[in-house]
Amino acid sequence: MALLKHLLFSFTIFIISFVFCYGSLQEDPLTSIYVHHSPSVDDGGTLFKNFNKQSANVLSLNRFEKRGSLKKVNVNDYGAKRNGDTDDSEAFKKAWDEVCDSGEAILVVPKDNYLLKPIRFSGPCKPNIEVQISGTLEAADDPSDYDEDSRHWLVFDKIKNLYVYGGGTLDGNGKVWWENSCKKNKKQPCKDAPTALTFDSCEDLTVENLNIENAQQIHVSFQDSENVKVSGLNVNAPEDSPNTDGIHVTKTKNIQISDSVIGTGDDCISIVHGSKNVEATNITCGPGHGISIGSLGAGKSKDVVSGIKVNGAKIFGTKNGVRIKTWQGGSGSASDIKFQNIEMNNVTNPIIINQNYCDKKKRPCQKAGSEKSAVEIKNVVYENISGTSASEVAVKFDCSEKFPCQKIKLQNIDLACEGGDDAEALCNNVDKLSYIGHVKPRCSKE
Ligand SMILES: *[C@@H]1O[C@H](CO)[C@@H](O)[C@H](O)[C@H]1NC(C)=O
Ligand SMILES: *[C@@H]1O[C@H](CO)[C@@H](O)[C@H](O)[C@H]1NC(C)=O
Ligand SMILES: *[C@@H]1O[C@H](CO)[C@@H](O)[C@H](O)[C@H]1NC(C)=O
């Protein structure tokens, strides 16, 4: 009897601990982020720390065990000419169909040059697929090749559990589009150009170690996706290339971007409507326009973003450092935002909120106090931000009179002018601004 009791007791404990461990893995939404093993995930701050330690090992073990058995589907075996001059799109499409239809397979792009017209790598696919890009993919640079869809070059869509990696290069050959952009050539109508690499409606996605350069417009876009891990991206385009955002995040939940170096002609990272739980760590930006939340509320839209954390960034010679930008007349909110551990070097607007953005060319700007709505901005923390400002105003909060920014915290801030002079902070319409520790500059008007 005693033995039976003992057994029953042990069994109960076993069941309880099993349920407990399994349950705790399930309930934290962040733990559902798929993580491929990466030695640097630990500098992602506290948010992801425990999860990384526990589950990354399990997941990478699974991945590792499967890896050896994945079927390799080499684009060269499907007729790719790989001389960089002949269109290889058909070979890529055929190889992709094979990978997607069979599952348990890797699309292999060896170290050669491939010329590609716009391609959609669409799912749904059978499980376990990878894309290993070691070579260079060159975008066709005749805009008429993009007649069917002038907004995209390479698209991965509707795929679950996709892993893209390989150290190769995607070259958007964007020069033709830049020259014809209305920002460069005022005679041209303003038209959107292709995004080099788009992930649309993907779930459990990992993108690692790729060079993406000279995009026609945006370099990499994540949209309508969930549980995304991005690391080791090198994004590069000239400072004067128009609208060439580095990484663009829209309607995407649970995305972690880390260990990436981004220098372009526009935003380093832009996070827009419908994005939630976005974390960026160890990011180097410059040149370009810095890290931006927004713009939000354009064309009177209702936009919501929340749970954004930028932790660990070096920002050099950019127009903005960390920015929140919303249009007059919009609605919705940007909330629970943290900018931490950021080094600024000669940044024109290191810390900036512009809640009153308007384009005078399009319509007259509303008078302060007459706003009917605004994208509300609340709970924003700036912590451990230091370095230099290229302008006298290192901190600028330009918030709406009727819908002030709420709960802004500045903690351990040390920003001076590039030449060494003291910098200023200009603050309009901030409700509950708090300072913790050393904060310089402080608002002259609160
Ligand atoms: C930060 O990212 C850079 C560039 O990818 C990388 O070389 C470096 O090792 C990363 N630092 C840490 C602490 O992971
Ligand atoms: C700082 O930035 C300004 C404006 O962007 C530029 O003119 C200046 O040369 C830069 N200074 C240094 C030391 O890089
Ligand atoms: C800010 O810096 C201090 C001192 O280096 C450090 O103790 C603290 O953890 C940092 N804060 C964050 C959020 O990393």
From TrEMBL:
Keywords: Cell wall, Cell wall biogenesis/degradation, Glycosidase, Hydrolase, Membrane, Secreted, Signal, Transmembrane, Transmembrane helix. Its EC number is 3.2.1.15. It catalyses: (1,4-alpha-D-galacturonosyl)n+m + H2O = (1,4-alpha-D-galacturonosyl)n + (1,4-alpha-D-galacturonosyl)m. It is found in: Secreted, Cell wall. The chain crosses the membrane at residues 7-25. The keyword Acetylation does not apply. GO terms for molecular function: polygalacturonase activity. It comes from the Eukaryota. Belongs to the glycosyl hydrolase 28 family. This is endo-polygalacturonase. It comes from Vigna angularis var. angularis.
